[in-house]
Design a protein that fits this description.
The complex is a heterotetramer, with two copies of chain A (328 residues) and two copies of chain B (341 residues). By secondary structure, chain A is α/β, with parallel strands linked by helices. Chain A contains twelve helices and 14 strands. In chain A, helix 1 runs parallel beside helix 7 and helix 3 runs parallel beside helix 4. The mean pLDDT of chain A is 98. Chain B has one domain: Rossmann fold. In chain B, helix 2 packs across helix 4 and helix 2 packs across helix 12. Chain B is globular. The chains are: A alpha/beta (328), B alpha/beta (341). Chains C and D meet through loops of C and helix 11 of D. Bound molecules: thiamine diphosphate (TPP) (2 copies) and magnesium ion (MG) (2 copies).
């Protein structure tokens, strides 16, 4: 990462990726609730784009997530590259038929005669007292359906590069924008910038314990690693960046080295995405681990509203540090 | 001794006129709603309070008039923008405010929050944060009354924007088919989040569209107490008497941004200031004085009582502790033994 | 040299009358549909063939008339009960039958099956097995034409039962709002699986209900070629000219159980036998002879040609191998490298 | 299991449980598509019940899964015990908002003031050439949402006992009826019969390898065990019966004994339910296993139509036997 890149928020980086994609390719367009100016998306992701590209290409929709995702699918079947916005990931629940039964399956069901190059952007709550229906990280649902790609950036730079790749990817991509990171700042390469899907990034190198994580929990893991460094524990933080494709080699490379792994995520731990990774590590590195693979995900409860409970619900730096400390 | 807990919630869909008693009950309700909102906004602005808050300013009359015709054992379902509905249905103000603040004395012990208020004791069964999500549930509540042979009515509140989503359509079709006693109250405040009515549908009229399911549907001035009172009497009376569901489109105007802190730049400023000038609580107060000859002093007494009960509710909420850590894993299932470890 | 591949698919929504050429093209299409169904049922009954099959008997005229007004580059979306739509739109019969049999020469190499036919070459874009699932997708196809400034039209077929589900409602509202060139073709065959129209909705009229979204909506006798031909011309012409979506309720009757092997005990036997007596292919044939003076021999020639091409398609499908094991993991993603291992 | 119990199909057992529940409690009622007589449900689960209890209590619905599940939720909030039928599990995709955002969360979001004692019965396809949209086992979605119980019987007896328990359970239960088992026969205790949720059943005892499985794959695993017995490999087959509550003790007890485990299910393997179980076993029995925990689930693809591909897609007895043989 060059340090003289201009500094932007993750939301601005998302905006840049869409802006560049729309400038490059007339087949790229966006649709979703409140995405037109002056609002430009409730999280500002599309700010300025309807003004620049017109309200034909940046289209407000009614509150109808099935229609939003379905319309994106339809346009994509004939080669357009729609970017649909589902305001919050919790609302995927109303659109899962289009996502899982249509977007994910149409390539296969047509024997490859059609494909669905859509991107669905969505905000992921949590940590902001939005309550049980506005705070869920549902990447496990997506991972479990063959045919969907899933990206979860943790930095502005990754957000730009991954979103650009999603837009031009020939398969349906779910792009998760973690709300608590949306307004964090970081360097973002100017102009066209791509990060291939399926390549994890070691955000911090270390020798004793590997933390495998993504999205919201990356800065938490990095903070825990920083604390532990002072205690002489060297932590490697592997940011997966995409869950499908999954960078299996990067995970195994790191854990083979450290022989200890913790998988950390904001999604519910039970039957969550970390179970796949823990199973993979346990299987592939059987007999070579110094400790059982630990998983840290959200507690088995709907997300509570009260701040005091919500902070217990999700993993966070202190508890991550404690878990690592106990196993190192 | 808060106002809301003792507030009568009517006596069941009679179409009798708006008596002075009823008129004053409604005044007390709208005043409670307005005062609570004002107090919350003040607390949020100063940093004294902290919550996500969806204004109900401008929509007070709708539930106040509706609840005149509901009994305590009638059911209500509402949305994140539902504090007015909760107050009108009789959810205790202390518990309501405490829940919005995430405190253990709240309706849900602080675990639900402002988008998930519920108080079965007063018939407020569900508050949902998912647009349209409440309508199918309301059909089920109404079905229970039908199956059990009671004459309870279910009222479900939702926004104009919710008319675009699938759940709404499925629920209306099913309710009409089953002729269950539910009143669909569409609080048409002209906006779905930041998008105007005319920008998300070409429907010439919601009432007309929903009549297409084979149920009664009517548009009413939701900011006029007499009009709302009468329309609600009819709709609730019809549902209670077993003639099936009714769709009520209540025209109103959202007097502010979507939620606390949200911009209003997309709203027509003239339209907004005109709506503000004609806002329903003041309009109703003037009507009571001018048309009904109610004394200023009577209204001022009610207002003063309301303000102090609101203040008491806020103070009680602030003094209430947050839920204890053990609460994290209770109420997931009927028994903690079922939890995965 | 199968019939369906060479069959013209009309020339774009003109409202001109039903010429002899057009009338015979339609006859060839309905005959192909009927023959294919008959042959499949025969194969299923004897155990020669194996597939899930949803009868289209009685619904042949609808797509045959519609496709007179469609170009090859117009888009179509259909359902599990969509073999007639596929044939009318020009999906090659060999590939169609092979797919239904799960063979590698099928439209999807045998991986989709009868519920997932698609052939973008002929504009048959999606077949879905989820009730209502196709409508939002059709809106997107139509949107692509609008954004690209082409005059392509999208036709989406679905059943009467699909009008109850959320996706249908969302799609219609969105299509009307965006004024996209889509024709919603509701093939009202009076049943949703085993439930009668009157048992799942109180809507007095579907056309009227869907007009509520602010779009054109019309009911037509879907079993009459002249009526369907004219209604389709109007609807497709309107969509093509940019005046937005149209909803067509095509009245027809499902001449059998929901799927092969399913019972019909819940269907009124008198109604069914009356509908069978008036079944649309025979009715049309009589009309051609009696009203249009078309010679028996002309029709018999077409019928003979059709039968032999259907037989050829079935034989080709039987001779075709199943997909190879490697196909299991191809077409999941654009590249197998993206697959989790 | 007493062997003189009358023999019934799994579908008949389901029917019996509902019949008895409806006879016992006027608050029990059923709703769903085509569930009234003469059809009595496309899989015959409700056959005869509308005739016996009337069309008020056994109600046909329009094709509207959101309304079906939502109406069940609403009635349950005031103490009724609705049994909703969603014709096929794939169609949960249109109703996930009601299932995951409402049924699962209302008890918690109301601080326990309300609860949702519904049962949602659903058929699960697979192995019958129904294609990609009619063959999915989506229990992983359900397990991942805190607040939902999930039962998947593999025998007529279990079906009756578990369904009865689901109907009278105070939490929302998803009851999965595997289509390929629906017309298999077995002994079913007459009259009122209950099996508590959360108790696994060892369907075959063994010493060398534990197969942890449920539903469709139970007979497959038993057949594999039978084959392997002849080869001198002793296989224990643990039928979980419910995935939530998960009988963790039964799993660990078995694997602690055999030191080798295979988790087998019809759901997609990737990020599937088996990942939770494999992670659990790997964690709790770290250092005590003789081999890595194996997972066998459906291949990472939409379910293919052609019979030849579909049989490769799902686990089956021969491949299960081969996997066990390789690790024993
Ligand atoms: C299914 C779903 N989609 C999107 C949202 C985000 N959202 C919250 S409120 C709202 C606007 C709703 O408008 P309306 O129904 O008119 O209700 P109002 O807020 O005006 O009371 C939107 C889009 C949501 N909560 N649920
Ligand atoms: C969402 C969904 N629910 C239920 C089903 C099961 N199902 C398949 S066909 C059908 C009946 C559909 O009726 P209709 O829309 O009238 O179409 P038709 O079969 O008559 O062509 C049903 C309920 C389904 N495929 N999808
Ligand atoms: Mg609104
Ligand atoms: Mg039909």
């Amino acid at each position: 990462m060059t340090t003289d890149d201009p500094i932007h928020t993750l939301s601005e980086a998302v905006n840049q990726a869409m802006d560049i994609a729309m400038a490059e390719d007339p087949d790229v367009f966006a649709l979703g609730e409140d995405i037109e100016d002056p609002i430009g998306g409730v999280m500002k992701g599309t700010k300025g784009l309807s003004t620049k590209y017109g309200r034909e290409r940046v289209r407000n929709t009614p509150i109808s997530e099935q229609a939003i995702v379905g319309a994106a699918i339809g346009a994509s079947l004939v080669g357009m590259r729609p970017i649909a916005e589902v305001m919050l990931m919790d609302f995927f629940a109303v659109a899962m038929d289009q996502v899982a039964n249509h977007a994910a399956k149409l390539r296969y069901m047509s024997g490859g005669r059609t494909n669905v190059p859509i991107t669905i952007r969505t905000s992921v709550g949590g940590g902001r007292q939005f309550g049980a229906q506005h705070s869920q990280s549902l990447e496990a649902w997506m991972m479990h359906i063959p045919g969907l790609k899933v990206a979860v950036p943790s930095t502005p730079r990754d957000a730009k590069g991954l979103l650009y790749s999603c837009i031009f990817d020939d398969d349906p991509c779910i792009f998760m924008e973690t709300m608590s990171l949306l307004f964090t700042r970081g360097p973002v390469p100017p102009g066209r910038f791509e990060i291939p899907l399926g390549v994890a990034d070691v955000k911090r190198a270390g020798d004793d314990v590997s933390v495998v994580t993504w999205g919201w929990q990356v800065p938490e893991a990095l903070a825990a690693a920083e604390t532990l460094a002072d205690e002489g524990i060297s932590v490697e933080v592997v940011d997966l960046r995409t869950l499908v494709p999954l960078d299996r080699d990067a995970i195994l490379r790191s854990v083979a080295k450290t022989t200890r792994a913790v998988v950390v995520h904001a999604a519910t731990q039970f039957a969550g995405p970390g179970a796949e990774i823990a199973s993979l590590v346990g299987h592939e590195l059987f007999g070579r681990l110094s400790a059982p693979v630990e998983r840290m995900g959200a507690a088995y409860s709907p997300v509570p509203y009260a701040a005091e409970l919500e902070s217990l619900h999700y993993p966070e730096r202190k508890r991550i540090a404690a878990t690592i400390r106990a196993m190192a | 001794m808060t106002v809301s807990t003792t507030q009568p919630v009517g006596s069941g869909g009679s179409n009798e006129g708006l008596t002075d008693d009823a008129a004053l009950r409604i005044f007390r309700t709208v005043t409670t709603i307005r005062s609570t909102e004002d107090r919350i906004i003040r607390g949020l602005s100063s940093g004294e309070l902290r919550m996500t808050y969806y204004t109900v300013r401008g929509q007070e009359v709708i539930p106040a008039a509706i609840c005149e015709h509901l009994r305590r054992d009638d059911y209500m379902v509402t949305t994140y923008r539902g504090m007015h509905d909760c107050i009108a249905k009789g959810v205790p103000l202390d518990e309501l405010v405490a829940e919005m603040c995430g405190k253990v004395t709240g309706t849900s012990k602080g675990k639900g929050g402002p988008m998930h208020l519920s108080d079965p004791q007063s018939g407020l069964m569900v508050t949902t944060g998912v647009v349209g999500g409440g309508l199918p549930i309301a059909v089920g509540l109404a079905l229970s009354s039908k199956l059990r042979g009671t004459d309870q009515v279910t009222v479900v509140n939702f926004g104009d924007g919710a008319t675009s989503i699938g759940a709404t359509h499925e629920a209306c079709n099913l309710a009409a088919l089953w002729e269950v006693p539910v009143v669909f109250v569409c609080q048409n405040n002209q906006y779905g989040e930041h998008t105007k009515f005319a920008d998300y549908t070409r429907s010439p009229s919601l009432a007309e569209r929903f009549r297409g399911y084979g149920m009664e549907a009517r548009t009413v001035d939701g900011n006029s107490v007499p009009a709302m009172h009468e329309a609600a009497a009819e709709a609730i009376g019809a549902a209670r008497s077993g003639s099936g569901p009714v769709f009520l489109e209540c025209l109103t105007y959202r007097l502010g941004g979507h939620s606390f802190g949200a911009t209003t730049e997309y709203m027509d400023p003239d339209e907004l200031s005109q709506a503000e000038a004609n806002e329903p609580v003041g309009r109703y107060r003037r009507w009571l004085v001018d048309q009904r000859g109610i004394g200023e002093d009577v209204l001022a007494d009610i207002e003063a009582a309301v303000v102090s009960s609101v203040e008491a509710a806020v103070e009680a909420a602030k003094a209430s502790p947050p839920p204890a850590p053990e609460e994290l894993l209770t109420d997931v299932f009927s028994s903690v033994e079922a939890l995965p470890r």
